[in-house]
Amino acid sequence: MPGSTVVIVESPAKAKTINKYLGADYTVIASFGHVRDLSPRDGSVRPDEDFAMEWELGDRSRRHIDDIARAVKGADRVFLATDPDREGEAIAWHLTEVLRDKRLLDKVDVQRITFNEITKSAVQAAIKAPRHVSQELVDAYLARRALDYLVGFTLSPVLWRKLPGSRSAGRVQSVALRLICERESEIEIFRPQEYWTVDVGLTTPAGAGFTAQLTHLDGRKLDKFGLPDQAAADRAVATIVAHPYRVASVERRQARRNPYAPFTTSTLQQEASRKLGFGATRTMRVAQKLYEGVDIGGETVGLITYMRTDGVSLSQEAIQASRSLIGSLWGDSYVPTSPRIYKTAAKNAQEAHEAIRPTDLFRRPEQVAAYLEGEELKLYELIWKRTVASQMESAVLDQVAVDVASPNREAVLRATGSIVVFDGFMRVYQEDKDDAEDEQERRLPAMAEGDGLDRGAVTPAQHFTQPPPRYSEASLVKKLEELGIGRPSTYASILQVLQDRNYVRLDKRRFIPEDRGRLVTAFLKNFFNRYVEYTFTADLENQLDDISDGRLDWKAVLREFWRSFHTAVDGTKDLTITQVLTTLDEELGAHFFPAVGENGGDPRVCPKCHTGRLGLKLGKMGAFIGCNNYPECRYTRPLAVANDDAPDTLDGPKELGDDPETGLPVSVRRGPFGAYIQLGPPRGAEEEAPPAEKPAKGKKKAKDAAPKPKRVSLPKGMTVADLDLDKALKLLALPRTIGNHPETGQEISAGIGRFGPYIKHGPVYKSLPPDDDVLEIGINRAVSLLGEAAKKAAATPGRTLGDHPKTGKPVTVGAGRFGPYVKHGSTYASIPKAMDAETVTLEQGLELLEAKAAKDAAKKGAKAAPAEGESAEEAPKKTTRKPAAKKTAAPADGETAEAAPKKAAPKKKAAAETDGEPKPAKTTTRKRA
């Protein structure tokens, strides 16, 4: 009977592909991810009732469950084909529970199937090998979800009460935040240490030159700080130039460099960050698209295997295919004698899936380039190269170390070099961009022991030790994985939450903690130290692994955790805000009040009254720095380090110089939207002109009103410390012409607008990615970005889903500034992220439009209909009564007049926070003591 077997997957794109593989006897339907979750309110996990948990369906999930229920009703068999990881197992369990509650599974055979790649053979093989839902994996999921919920809903309210202005805390995110904050503290207390090196130019009898470095002086081996200052370096130079030199020894050895293992989730995120500049979230989004399938020649094909895995092994089919491919492309010398077998260090067998690899290694990147967007092709090529290289022969290098000495070894110099004898896997893949080229460049000329050498230039060089680098996304993911904290599949969301909470910011791909994040970390370290310790969090992860292996009872783990955690929370009930402030003031005093100068005054002395002491204060909007002479002295400043690197601490305009063309002063200032640059007013003019007298009704303003000074916001990531007069003038001169488009001949320009830096080509605007500089971007990069935007925009706009059953008018799909949407007449409805705009159906579109219409009808004062090509969020507001006459609003500080935005109503917060965190409770306004 057609449709008698129902297959439930997670995404509609996957459902569409698998439906083609299985035929008419199967109905494939999507759950759209998780179908239910813990209620986003206190009490959804009840420790007093042996950790009973209250689940609820989301509004969107109800519609999908109804569709699934209709499909299951009357079916003989149900296959739960959700993703092959813990989350997928949890979704399968939730689906079973929901359908059982609806009494739809009494006479239906329900089984679980998994496949690591979306190919016809893999899906058909999974159908032949079904199993039951793993209760051990479900128990581990329940324990993890309960832990995250209990920490979030118990610890976050403590933060709100004791540290107003804080957002939330999470079991794993708080530990990641601590890593970032502690690294910043290491950088701040770092004191550079001077040291010197001496390089010597040498020439062999054959006339070949090379460079060696001083390693021994007067019979003593020099360590890194062997030459601590210029005086020591000068003495070393004097010794070197006083003697002739011969080759003392030549050491040769051959080294083999083995290829890297195929990608796991974390190594893919790290390498995509290093090589492609992708963040963890972006990497996973693109990988999901490659996994679910791409239309190639009219057929949807999954290009890579499942991308959430800790495993590094490859299937026998993949190994044989790679060996065959390597031999055909580069010859048998590149194929190792026996296949390379990689083993994962992960203890949990559930995680030991196959590594991330192409589903068909013979599908080379250049063959699929026409079907992929730019970022998809880059990631696919990275995965393809890493997989192929993992099965190639090792690279072989000849390494040489030459010691050069004076007659009595008063000075000994060393030169090292190597040459790639056989490139092996390096022909396809290098960890660093130019590994092979660098190896060739370090090649030394032929020498033999006893050869006399001519000495050339002796060059001393001064160096300073460098502080540890800030964490990038790649290095932070690597550190979390080394510590055993969290799971690779959760890293992307954890890093995003830290940024969404304004606890950290990304600057030049490096994490910098915000002061709000420092406060939260200091609070947790002082009052809940155990729960942000690295070893404690890692041990908890190990216990979760033991639960999934069936070695521990999940409720026993929860009972042990809750007993000590609840006691720690109870211990803060009598903690006063004053005590918290005193503790944090001592912990962070060195950060917020750094010493000024060698013999400078006390940095805590109030600059306004000169008698008060500055310290941390708390207000209804959070923490700030204020004077203890309040209310007599009302000096305050934002919570930030008092230096020029922090633009928010500017007490007044900071002049950078004069514009050579106009003679007007150029200054940097602080406005409500951050720092900005201003040209003018002339020196001596009032900082703020008095408001003009309101003209009488019907009269125009005077034409001789003073013009507003030109302003431009600082691009995101740029600080006051980065500014000089030249850079400020370049920003004020925006927009600038980059060049003409090679195809259209139209001008391409770059500027800064309401939504940040952009490039413009005719009527088309394209926002610049964070790594592109609006002042430096060239014509080639601009054309590339515009091409990617055009390709993406052409994917969905204008596609007609069908006619509306009531009006007969078309329902279409479009792409707006805030994402894809469906449109019918004047009604626009955004397409959720979980729904694929390219596969959305008419029925789904009608549901979205109906929900949007009902939501609009419930609001007071309906919004104006959006213009053609805009999403609902973009449509301007329409007023129903004539507004009172008033002056044109001046642009906000940091914006040009053209970019000044209209004030918009604040966005509603999400009902449930990530990592088991509740929404902050409303704080009441209280006078500051």
Say how many strands there are: 34
- Major beta-sheet overview: 6 strands, antiparallel, barrel
Q: Which topology of the largest domain does CATH recognise?
A: Topoisomerase I, domain 2
CATH architecture classification of the largest domain: Orthogonal Bundle
In short:
This protein is an alpha+beta fold and 929 residues long.
Describe this structure in words.
It is built from 22 helices and 34 strands. It is an alpha+beta fold and 929 residues long. The protein folds into six domains: 5-133, 3-Layer(aba) Sandwich (Rossmann fold), CATH 3.40.50; 136-187 and 473-641 and 896-929, Orthogonal Bundle (Topoisomerase I, domain 2); 194-256 and 399-416 and 446-464, Distorted Sandwich (Topoisomerase I, domain 3), CATH 2.70.20.10; 265-393, Topoisomerase I, domain 4; 654-686 and 708-790, no CATH class; 795-857 and 866-873, no CATH class. The strands form ten sheets. The chain has a six-stranded antiparallel barrel with strand order 9-10-16-15-12-17. β10 (209-217) and β11 (220-221) form a beta hairpin. The chain is globular. The chain starts with a strand and ends in a 71-residue tail after the last helix.
